[in-house]
Amino acid sequence: MWQGHSDLRRPRWRTRVLVVIPLLVIGLITLGDVLAPANVRLSPLLIAAPAMTASFAGPLLTACVGLLAVGAQIVANAYEGLLGHPGRLTEVITLALVSAMIVLFRAVLDRHMRELNRVRAVADVAQRVLLRPLPVRVGPLLIASVYLAAEPGAEIGGDLYAAARTSDTTRLIIGDVRGSGLTAVADASLVLGAFRAMAHWPVPLTDLAAHLDTALSAERTEPPDKAPGAGESFVTAAVLEIPDDQPVVRLVNCGHPPPIALRDSGVKTLEGYAPALPLGLGHLVADRYHSEVFPFDEGDQLLLYTDGVIEARNSEGTFYPLTERLPGWNGAGPQHLVDRVHRDLICHTGGHQGDDAALVVLERHGADR
Q1: What number of CA atoms fall less than 13 Å from residue 369's CA on the CB side?
Q2: CA-to-CA distance for 199 and 211, rounded, in angstroms?
Q3: How remote is the C-alpha of 201 from its chain's centroid?
Q4: Quick check: 310 and 322 in contact, CB under 8 A?
Q5: What would the mean pLDDT of 239-251 be, rounded to a whole number?
Q6: How many other CB atoms are there within 10 angstroms of residue 343's CB atom?
Q7: Measured between alpha carbons, how far is 123 from 274 in angstroms, rounded to an integer?
Q8: Does residue 308 contact residue 352 with C-beta atoms inside 8 Å?
Q9: Residue 357 class from Cβ within 10 Å (0-12 exposed, 13-18 middle, 19+ buried)?
Q10: CA nearest 325: which of 340, 347, 306, 308?
């Protein structure tokens, strides 16, 4: 899912191929100007060569093509014996000046491109630190995941997931921050940081959920932020615990879409009897969190997702039917299932993702596998 930083410049081989075009333009215009009747002037068109070069090459190569164009115009004028003619001399000077301006603009553009590359590199590192890719294997679990950011060019938004290990247990969280933009990213960072700080400790799962809620709620005691939506956000989340030596999964659901279990007997949604309020709203009730236990045997799969998946619409406004598609896809490995849902979701929306979406698939195997 993570797309590494890419340079904005074209590959060198492509530049070498494309530079043939302005060179051919220079040659054809010069030859045409020499062979055409005296009343036909083609050499003013030579400015097209450096202009074309600037669209795919840097300032140095553009300057070289510009010099060739000026030289070609001088050769054409000398061939006609009009090199010293005031009108022809003006054409040569004009071509040289316009070529120099094109080179200058290309140099400024290259500087901006380098700055943009540096910003993208820093943003890429920051996003990777915030939303770390999940490991492929944790204890007896195989894991696959994908993140679809709604914001073009972004790799993280308001959705989040993370995994952590205790001595004999794997803990995971998947969540969705209310809202979008920088406020959502800040809240996602806060929840992920709190989870990573606490999840490794052998505390009850309900205490972990309470800690996440407290961390998010405490943010509201800070001086108010002027950003839109600041201080009003909450996070829906599913916090899970899968012990290595027991065929179960423990779940604290904080207002999040329930996980889906896939096994040989079919597909089942793990809906608890008492879902908690989203993180950040736990102070509104006294008895906040309950851990519920569901079977999770060897070979079973567990699909975690955010509402960006089930609320994705097609051109007709129809929601993506996740639970209807899954029965025909169980039995494959986690990565295959993630890829299958990902492709089908993109096909359903036509590539227009209206909200961030995250998918995580877990599969239990023997500890020695």
Answers
A1: 12
A2: 10
A3: 32
A4: yes
A5: 94
A6: 10
A7: 39
A8: no
A9: buried
A10: 340
Instruction: Give dist(CA 363, CA 331) in Å, integer.
Output: 10
> pLDDT band at residue 133, thresholds of 50, 70 and 90?
confident
Q: Is 302 helix (H, G, I), strand (E, B) or coil?
A: strand
- Listing DSSP states for 306-319 in one string gives -HHHHT-B-TT-PB
Q: Which residue from 139, 160, 152 is spatially nearest to 235, judged by alpha carbons?
A: 160
**pLDDT tens-digit readout, 273-283:** 778 889 988 77
Nearest CA among 291, 223, 213, 287 for reference residue 252: 291
Task: Map tokens 């100007």 to a residue.
Answer: 33
Q: 3-class DSSP state for residue 156?
A: coil
At 241 the pLDDT is 96
Q: Are 106 and 59 in contact (CB under 8 A)?
A: yes
Output the six-digit token pair for 289. Answer: 């969190």
**Tokens encoding 204:** 């009850």
The H or E element spanning position 176 is strand 169-177
Main-chain dihedrals φ then ψ at residue 8, nearest 5 degrees: -80, -15
Count the neighbouring beta carbons within 10 Å of the beta carbon of residue 24: 11
Looking at the predicted structure, is the pLDDT value of residue 6 above 50? no
Express each pLDDT in 155-213 by its tens digit.
667 889 999 999 899 999 999 998 666 667 888 888 999 999 999 998 999 999 999 99
What are 360's two structure tokens? 């995580």
